[in-house]
Q: What sequence folds into this?
């Protein structure tokens, strides 16, 4: 429902609504909030908005509107993105500069309490030689046959249809290095329930960082 103070404003708001729900634009995000739960799903209009006529549908200062959305991926996503750093800071001393003491985490448990397996976005931070991340719950792994230097990063996305592997240089330049992935690797997803994730490399991983980000997937809101 569009509500306006006068007819010119109403017409402007109709035009604005039509410009936002333009099927020629890329997918947008439909967000559901009920005060306790927030879910998001990718959606695209299947046509321009419809503005029905009749005294119950429009007047000098109001207009009903109908918008039909298509969602190619049927799952709703949680908005909270999890980050699981390998190095978990515990506390700091008030020295000049940054000085932290923490726990080196090369094994972690990630609980996926959603309704479906979910892809992950992984960042390997160098230095590391042939870094590998294993989902011990499923036996699947992703291994990079390459040496990463200081401030070098590997970005891996396991989303079906969008799988990618990028090498990020210290200056931020990215390049596609899909061929660096070991042929036995699987672009695994987090299964529903408990996932035991382990990080290793052919070198000392002290100080190494592996970040994992993901959204939980739900069948409904």
A:
């Amino acid at each position: 429902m569009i509500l306006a103070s006068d007819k010119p404003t109403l017409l402007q708001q109709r035009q604005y609504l039509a410009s936002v729900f333009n099927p020629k634009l890329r997918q947008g995000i439909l967000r559901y909030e009920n005060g306790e739960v927030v879910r998001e799903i990718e959606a695209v209009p299947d046509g321009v908005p419809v503005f029905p006529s009749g005294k119950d549908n429009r007047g000098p200062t109001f207009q009903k509107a109908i918008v039909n959305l298509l969602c190619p991926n049927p799952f709703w996503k949680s908005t909270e993105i999890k980050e699981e750093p390998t190095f978990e800071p515990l506390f700091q001393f008030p020295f000049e500069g940054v000085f932290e003491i923490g726990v080196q985490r090369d094994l972690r448990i990630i609980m996926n309490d959603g309704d479906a397996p979910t892809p992950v976005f992984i960042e390997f931070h160098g230095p590391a030689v042939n870094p590998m991340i294993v989902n011990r719950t499923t036996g699947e792994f992703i291994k990079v046959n390459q040496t990463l230097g200081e401030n070098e990063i590997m970005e891996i996305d396991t989303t079906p249809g969008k799988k990618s592997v990028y090498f990020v240089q210290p200056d931020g330049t990215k390049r596609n290095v899909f061929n660096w992935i070991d042929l036995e690797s699987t672009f695994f997803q987090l299964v529903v329930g408990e996932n035991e994730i382990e990080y290793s490399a052919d070198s000392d991983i002290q100080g190494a960082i592996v970040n994992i980000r993901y959204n939980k997937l739900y069948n409904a809101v």
Q: What stands out?
A: The longest strand covers residues 38-45. The longest helix spans residues 7-20. DSSP finds one helix and 20 strands in the chain. Residues 99-105 have pLDDT under 50 and may be disordered.
